[in-house]
Amino acid sequence: xxxxxxxxxxxCAQTDPEIFFSDSGHYRDARKICxxxxxxxxxxxxxxxxxxDRDPTRRxxxxxxxxxxxxxxxxxxxxxxxxxxxxIRLDAAGHSVRxxxxxxxxxxxxxxxxxxxxxxxxxxxx
Length: 126
Ligand code: SF4
Hints:
By secondary structure, the chain is mainly alpha-helical. It has one domain (16-120). The chain has helices at 28-35, 40-51, 68-92, 97-104, 108-120. The longest helix is centred in the middle third of the chain and has 25 residues, at 68-92. The two termini are 35 Å apart. 13% of the residues are buried.
């Protein structure tokens, strides 16, 4: 089950939802609202989760100030980067590979590969 408590603080729920689903692809007014929304990170993560298996052409609406196209391009990069940083931080804090894998929901092998690349530098393959 997904934790959606953050939605209680969503600013878009207090305004016209139509501006977040523009047929023209223009979201200027909606973006202004997202820029001040206190739950933007959770919103972006939620959008990435629900769209993860969705074809880019079937994504719609402005979520966390991001268009369907920008989410499909940048969302994945941000998620990978964030996961990598979490793995490195947990490793530095002394967590086991198994605990890290469970925390970020990837395999232990993938955690070892990411840590190896981090320890060998960005130009080294694992
Ligand atoms: S960041 Fe997300 S929750 Fe907040 S106003 Fe924008 S679309 Fe709504």
